[in-house]
């Protein structure tokens, strides 16, 4: 007899699509938009697996996971949600669900999750969590992987190492994990590179939960003290470490902290999250300043999505804060965003000078030094300008201070062609 799937989904179109996909995969499906109906089926012993949307007509189905566990302790549960936050993934994991599928998802992934759950029915579901959303958001595949890693760590008391480039939000990930473990931020000891070795050792021995920030900046003495604290039976440690650290991390210390590893992706690997991040940050600034939220034009959003963001989320937040202060009461356009990005003009000029000197040093090793440097610089400028403008040559030419014909001619010369590429 084929397995019986109980489907709880209030979007009629999606309910039909999921029912057909599950039916085609050989499962029996019984679908409803009513949580009460689904719970009644479960109470009556129907179904082998529950596939449920999280938000149903304004209610959060995660609040019913405790009841599902009491009614059918061995029934695996898979939840689906468009609420792309760490809290949703964490609450789902703490509620004992087998899998959390962030919408939109691939139907093949859903079928695979159902098959896996039916082959590994999990018992002993845990009580639900009622933590507030963290603001740590994103629907990209890279960010959802980070959310799931946080959710897994939340159900354990293992030491955790959180890695990622500077500015990606490693501290926010640590705070989300603390909340998921039921620890208020003020109840955890936070240790930074400014603490002495004695303070590190003492606080880590005394506290139940400790956050070690920017471990790559710690001195050798501080790292030895941290390692001794772990060897002496320290409380649970959550450490943040930048990838490719400037200072080497003690191997034994890194090995002890790597019981669980969470990697927070750089912004360039999750560009699809930038519009949602912009909306969240601008809303935060509006509440901070008691103003209406600044809105962004489509061109402004496209520009932000395609900007390099070497400083990651921290840089995006700073730019948006400047933008919010400069454009109160109106829609922010492309020029406003460009000005906010270039607000630190003096520092930008210094950075350009450093990279120009490096380019010059490389070019001087060639017989055609000047032309090689000019070609390399223009090729990079044109490529990035076109990327920011989604391939629109007129807008890219405006961004570069050129006319469109001049840009087309130089592109042809750099590509070694005689005519403009359409």
UniProtKB/TrEMBL annotation:
<dbReference type="InterPro" id="IPR058031">
    <property type="entry name" value="AAA_lid_NorR"/>
</dbReference>
<keyword id="KW-0597">Phosphoprotein</keyword>
<protein>
    <submittedName>
        <fullName>Nitrogen regulation protein NR(I)</fullName>
    </submittedName>
</protein>
<dbReference type="InterPro" id="IPR009057">
    <property type="entry name" value="Homeodomain-like_sf"/>
</dbReference>
<feature type="domain" description="Response regulatory">
    <location>
        <begin position="4"/>
        <end position="118"/>
    </location>
</feature>
<dbReference type="GO" id="GO:0005737">
    <property type="term" value="C:cytoplasm"/>
</dbReference>
<dbReference type="InterPro" id="IPR002197">
    <property type="entry name" value="HTH_Fis"/>
</dbReference>
<dbReference type="GO" id="GO:0006355">
    <property type="term" value="P:regulation of DNA-templated transcription"/>
</dbReference>
<dbReference type="GO" id="GO:0005524">
    <property type="term" value="F:ATP binding"/>
</dbReference>
<dbReference type="Pfam" id="PF02954">
    <property type="entry name" value="HTH_8"/>
</dbReference>
<feature type="modified residue" description="4-aspartylphosphate">
    <location>
        <position position="53"/>
    </location>
</feature>
<keyword id="KW-0902">Two-component regulatory system</keyword>
<dbReference type="InterPro" id="IPR002078">
    <property type="entry name" value="Sigma_54_int"/>
</dbReference>
<dbReference type="Pfam" id="PF14532">
    <property type="entry name" value="Sigma54_activ_2"/>
</dbReference>
<keyword id="KW-0067">ATP-binding</keyword>
<dbReference type="InterPro" id="IPR001789">
    <property type="entry name" value="Sig_transdc_resp-reg_receiver"/>
</dbReference>
<dbReference type="Pfam" id="PF25601">
    <property type="entry name" value="AAA_lid_14"/>
</dbReference>
<keyword id="KW-0804">Transcription</keyword>
<keyword id="KW-0547">Nucleotide-binding</keyword>
<keyword id="KW-0805">Transcription regulation</keyword>
<feature type="domain" description="Sigma-54 factor interaction">
    <location>
        <begin position="136"/>
        <end position="325"/>
    </location>
</feature>
<dbReference type="GO" id="GO:0043565">
    <property type="term" value="F:sequence-specific DNA binding"/>
</dbReference>
<dbReference type="GO" id="GO:0000160">
    <property type="term" value="P:phosphorelay signal transduction system"/>
</dbReference>
<dbReference type="InterPro" id="IPR027417">
    <property type="entry name" value="P-loop_NTPase"/>
</dbReference>
<dbReference type="Pfam" id="PF00072">
    <property type="entry name" value="Response_reg"/>
</dbReference>
<dbReference type="InterPro" id="IPR011006">
    <property type="entry name" value="CheY-like_superfamily"/>
</dbReference>
């Amino acid at each position: 007899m084929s397995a019986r799937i109980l489907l709880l989904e209030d979007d009629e179109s999606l309910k039909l699509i999921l029912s057909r996909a599950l039916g085609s995969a050989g499962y029996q499906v019984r679908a409803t938009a009513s949580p009460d109906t689904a719970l009644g089926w479960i109470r009556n012993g129907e179904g082998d697996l529950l596939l449920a949307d999280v938000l149903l007509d304004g209610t959060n189905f995660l609040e019913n996971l405790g009841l599902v566990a009491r009614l059918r302790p061995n029934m695996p549960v898979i939840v689906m949600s468009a609420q792309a936050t760490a809290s949703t993934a964490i609450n789902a994991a703490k509620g004992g669900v087998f899998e959390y599928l962030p919408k939109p998802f691939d139907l093949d992934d859903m079928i695979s999750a159902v098959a896996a759950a039916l082959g590994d029915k999990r018992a002993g579901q845990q009580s639900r969590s009622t933590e507030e959303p963290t603001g740590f958001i994103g629907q990209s595949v890279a960010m959802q992987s980070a959310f799931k890693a946080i959710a897994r760590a939340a159900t354990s008391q293992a030491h955790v190492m959180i890695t990622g480039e500077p500015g990606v939000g490693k501290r926010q990930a640590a705070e989300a994990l603390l909340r998921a473990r039921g620890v208020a931020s003020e109840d955890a000891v936070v240790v930074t590179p400014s603490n002495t070795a004695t303070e590190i050792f003492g606080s880590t021995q005394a506290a139940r939960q400790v956050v070690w920030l920017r471990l790559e900046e710690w001195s050798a003495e501080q790292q030895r003290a941290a390692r001794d604290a772990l060897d002496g039976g320290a409380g649970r440690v959550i450490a943040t470490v930048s990838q490719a650290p400037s200072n080497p991390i003690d191997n034994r210390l890194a090995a002890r902290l790597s019981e669980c590893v969470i990697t927070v992706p750089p912004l360039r690997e999750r560009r699809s999250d930038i519009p949602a991040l912009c909306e969240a940050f601008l809303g935060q600034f509006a509440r901070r300043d008691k103003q209406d939220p600044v809105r962004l034009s489509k061109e402004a959003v496209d520009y932000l999505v395609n900007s390099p963001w070497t400083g990651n989320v921290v840089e995006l937040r700073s730019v948006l804060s400047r933008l919010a202060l400069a454009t109160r009461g109106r829609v922010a356009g492309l020029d406003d965003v460009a000005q906010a990005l270039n607000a630190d003009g003096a520092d930008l000029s210094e950075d350009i000078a450093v990279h120009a000197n490096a380019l010059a040093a490389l070019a001087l090793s060639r017989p055609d030094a000047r032309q090689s440097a000019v070609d390399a610089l223009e090729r990079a400028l044109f490529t990035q300008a076109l990327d920011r403008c989604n391939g629109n040559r007129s807008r890219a030419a405006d961004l570069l201070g050129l006319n469109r014909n001049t840009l087309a001619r130089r592109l042809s010369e750099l590509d070694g062609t005689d005519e403009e590429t359409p």
